[in-house]
Amino acid sequence: MRGSGDQRRRGRGAQAASAAIEAREAAAAAFYDMDQAQKYLDGRVTVFEDLDASAAAPARREFTGLAESADAASVAYISVLDAHDLDDQERTPAEYDAARRAFVAATERLQQVARDLNGFAERLAPGMARLEAALDELPPRLTAARDAVAAADAAVAAAREAGMDASDPEAELARAKAALAQLSAQGLGGLGLDGALRKADEARAVAEAAREAAAELPQMAGKVRNSLASARTRVDVVAGRMEPVRRAMKTLLRGYSQACWQDLRGAPEAIEAGVTRARERLNEASAHVSRAEWKQAQQALTAARTELNAADRRAGQVTGRVTELEAVAADPTGPVESVRFAVRDAQRLAMAQPGGAAPQHARALDALVERLEKAPGTLTGAHPDYWAYLRELDAIKTAAGDVVTRIRAERANP
What we know:
- By secondary structure, the chain is an all-alpha fold.
- The protein is 86% helix and 0% strand.
- Helix 1 (2-51) runs parallel beside helix 3 (93-135), helix 2 (53-83) runs antiparallel to helix 3 and helix 9 packs antiparallel against helix 10.
- The mean pLDDT is 85.
């Protein structure tokens, strides 16, 4: 009997040992899987940080928590290994069973951490895929930026060899080179992928603008010379209007009330001063041309044109005023007809809507008709204020046009 009992105990002990060893092997496999997942993710998060540090910050925080759980599970697993040496043959079935349960618990913990790591990997994958796809765009963009800088360098050098002042495109080229240098110095770690892409595009765009500016310099020289010749011709033309302006001012002063010309007082002197300033700016432009300072020459030309435009416009106001006043003095009712047509056109449009004219439009148009009827009555005395009369007619015509605009807007947006 004693022999058969020993045999059963040995059988239970062998079974318990086998189950414990199997549990230990399962725990070892779980530890290996978890450790591999942790190492893989640590590398992926590091790559993420290299590509976009700010975007990777939340991922790094989450991974840090998972890594702490993995480290704790690893420590617990190693502790179980140390506590249960299954190579020791002198163990009871109860000890084997305790070892099995400890390894099973360690396995479950390791597997849970591995599942958490794998879940994190799945969530991380789409963003990483997008970043890596964007990473493929960086080399060609860098190449484009470097090519653009080289082309701009050549264009600036060619402009300088041709005697052009290329300081402006050269300054832009320096900006492009600085952007490339920053990209080289900081790389993805300092700029992030998005920052690196933007910096490469910035360098390319600035370099292309510099190249275009440098290439335009020889053309600018021709344009400036042509413009200078045209401006000198125009300044003579505007100066030639001085005598007609003086005659027109005499006509205004002698034949019309002060109200008709007071806003033009001092016009001949202002025009003459404008022509003088324009000549001075043109002389400055010529000096810049002689030194191949095309940008400064262009600026002086622009200033001269501004003076000429103002003088020419003022001259036109004076001579045009005489023409308008002479016409209305000869036929005071003549200007009324075009204004009356504009008011009637507005009235027809207002009445064409269902139910007739809207009250607000009817009131506005009635008021304009009343003003139009009263306007000729303001021409009184030996020297009527024809200019105020014409301005009143213009105001009525403009107001009628405003009513038409409102009616059409209301119909377009009922």
